[in-house]
Amino acid sequence: MRVDEAYSGNVFIKSHPNFEESEAVIYGMPMDWTVSYRPGSRFGPARVREVSIGLEEYSPYLDRDLADIKYYDAGDIPLPFGNPQKSLDTIEEFVEKILAANKFPVGIGGEHLVSWPVMQAVYRKYPDLAIIHMDAHTDLRDEFEGEALSHSTPIKKIANLIGPKNVYSFGIRSGMKEEFEWAKEVGMHISKFEVLEPLKEMLPKLAGRPVYVTIDIDVLDPAHAPGTGTVDAGGITSRELLASIHEIARSEVNVVGCDLVEIAPIYDPSEQTVNTASKLIREMMLGFVKK
After folding, report:
1. Which residue from 68, 187, 215, 277 puts its CA 20 to 30 A from 284's CA?
2. What class of enzyme is it (predicted)?
3. Among 281, 258, 244, which residue's Cα sits nearest to residue 122?
4. H/E run at residue 286
5. CATH code: domain of residue 191
6. Other C-beta atoms within 10 Å of 8: how many?
7. What tens digit of pLDDT does each residue of 165-206 get?
8. DSSP letter string over 32-56?
9. Are residues 84 and 113 in contact, defined by beta-carbon separation less than 8 angstroms?
10. Residue 144 is part of which domain span?
């Protein structure tokens, strides 16, 4: 499968028609085969694109316009329904092609397990990689009810691959006691409940390093994002999440890729969640993709 012909249909607002001329590539990962509560995140990427037409192209936060960068919307990766391993392999191969073309990958999910193959591909290109992870959940399980391929495992998998001390989680408010204990034992950074202030303290320590940013939309309180598979009370506001993205954008870290996952439109008839997600994608691109 070619990266520049993965999808036809709706595209993210202001996307560039030419893959070769673009600096970044948006792609959807429509998978929810391993979710432990409510399915539906496979419909997230397509709907985020559709509602992006309502976005302003200018960001007053960053004083930057979508016209300032060129990004290509490759659409949703065609994934084999119900086959987690083949889906993950397909995602990894797809992202490898984006990276080989020296494009900045911007992923939309889909359950959080889809971030695992992306992070593997990014790590091969950037061996000094660090992960910034914003989420309600630790995602540090080895398995869920006997299944090693689960949306509750991607951060444990990447921590084992690149070293736990290279993974920085923020906004965490849910997880098994054993997960928190493991993180403490191995020296992995977890900031409970909050994102912005602990992130400000941590970013100078990552200056100059390649960083991949993965955001589960359930880091937001359900009042701000009810359209997700595993809602969890007590989250941050959309304003704080935007400010956190901007803090990363203005820092000295070298962001080399990002994703926003676990968007399940069916649980939010108001479409507040997908509209918020669309704005977050705009800010991530304008903040992270450098000319």
Report:
1. 187
2. hydrolase
3. 258
4. helix 272-288
5. 3.40.800.10
6. 7
7. 999 999 999 999 999 999 999 999 999 999 999 999 999 999
8. -TT-SS---GGGHHHHHHHHGGGS-
9. yes
10. 3-288
